[in-house]
Design goal:
Blueprint lengths: L2 H14 L2 H8 L3 H15 L4 E3 L4 E3 L1 H29 L3 E7 L1 H18 L3 E7 L6 H4 L3 E5 L9 E8 L1 E5 L1 H7 L13 E3 L9 E5 L2 E5 L3 E4 L3 H9 L4 E5 H10 L3 E2 L9 E7 L7 H54 L17
Parallel strand pairs: 3-4, 3-5, 8-11, 8-12
Antiparallel strand pairs: 1-2, 5-14, 6-14, 7-12, 7-13, 9-10
Helix pairs in contact: 1-2, 1-3, 1-4, 2-3
């Protein structure tokens, strides 16, 4: 029989001084209660209770055993309550693993706000650009690039989408010219990850459909933050993720290129080992992280809309300037006549 259950039964019998009373309190039959005590005595090789027709009393061994068993059961109950509390209240160390650049540029604010909200949780963050086994390495959650997923036993949830952006500094473009089509990249030194970290061939989607080019790397690095530094130094045209260069684009330190073309998106996911019995620290961190990046996507989406609108406005303005110039050239060749004014309205973003 179950030894812990037998201990519990013995304590109840000793407290109530009755097999019948213990059976009623534990919702067991008297025969089962009697058997539990008999099994304990057989295991220990000693009598724990003196039985008479009128009463039960503890033997000397029974008194010693009862005292120690109470401590064991109290400790066990305390451990169980602690485990239950940890599963329902966010507490303890939360082991997180994430790619280096994404962790440095995008994860830190989310971890900071989570730690402020749940002070009893201690985030333990590991940054690694390698394949990670969450279960084998003991991580609670991992931030991963979807295309690098290899393990079927983990659960994943979409976190955000990364956009690869072709960019360069204004000074570089002023000196070397601005590429407007993917094929133009072949005339520029490219700053990109080496082949084993994503391949040299780039697949763009644009007005003419799918376009494949193989830019020539001026410098290759296995860390995109290093490539960002090279780009900011004006060493060439870089292809970098949006979460890395968002502030550079907003400040004008880097200029986005090939606005009519798109590279494949990168789905960033949060992964964790199991849906069952998920500790509160893991469950709350996942929900917090998803909400954080959903909020971050809203202004980013608005920024992209404004950028597209500005590009359209610039194109229309340029077309208007060309029309005016053509009209002026016509005036010098022909006799003046009544002109017709044409107004080009810039699109508005509500």
């Amino acid at each position: 029989m179950n030894q812990l259950q037998s201990m519990r039964v013995f304590v109840k019998v000793a407290d109530l001084g009755s097999f019948v009373g213990a059976a009623g309190a534990l919702d067991l039959s008297t025969a089962v209660v009697t058997r539990h005590v008999a099994d304990l005595e057989a295991r220990l090789g000693t009598r724990l209770l003196n039985r008479t027709t009128r009463r039960l009393s503890l033997t000397e061994s029974g008194t010693t055993y009862l005292e120690r068993v109470r401590h064991i059961l109290d400790d066990l109950e305390g451990v169980e309550q602690m485990v239950v509390a940890r599963n329902h209240e966010p507490v303890g160390t939360l082991r997180i693993v994430a790619p280096v650049v994404f962790g440095l540029h995008s994860l830190a604010p989310a971890v900071q706000s989570y730690a402020a909200r749940y002070p009893d949780v201690v985030p333990d963050v590991t940054l690694a650009d390698r394949q990670v086994d969450l279960v084998e390495e003991g991580f609670d959650v991992g931030i991963m690039v979807a295309r690098h997923m290899r393990t079927a036993s983990i659960v994943t949830r979409r976190l955000t989408t990364g956009y690869m952006t072709v960019c360069a500094t204004p000074a570089y473009l002023a000196q070397h010219g601005t590429p407007t089509r993917p094929v133009h990249l072949l005339k520029h030194p490219c700053l990109s990850r080496p082949a084993e970290h994503g391949g040299e061939e780039r697949v763009f989607t644009g007005p003419e459909g799918e376009v494949r080019v193989r830019p020539v790397n001026a410098i290759a690095a296995n860390n995109t933050e290093m490539l960002r530094q090279f780009a900011l130094l004006g060493m060439g045209v870089a292809i970098l993720p949006s979460y890395l260069i968002g502030r550079d684009l907003a400040s004008g330190r880097l200029v986005p290129l090939l606005g009519d073309y798109r590279l494949p998106q990168i789905e960033i996911t949060i992964a964790y080992p199991s849906r069952q019995h998920l500790p509160a620290k893991v469950r709350t961190f996942i929900d917090h992280l998803v909400a954080h990046f959903q909020q971050a996507e809203e202004p980013a989406r608005d920024t992209r809309i404004v950028a597209v609108a500005n590009s359209v406005a610039d194109a229309l303005a340029e077309a208007g300037d060309l029309a005016v110039a053509a009209a002026q050239r016509g005036v010098t060749r022909r006799a003046p006549r009544t002109s017709r004014a044409r107004t080009v309205a810039s699109p508005q973003v509500g």
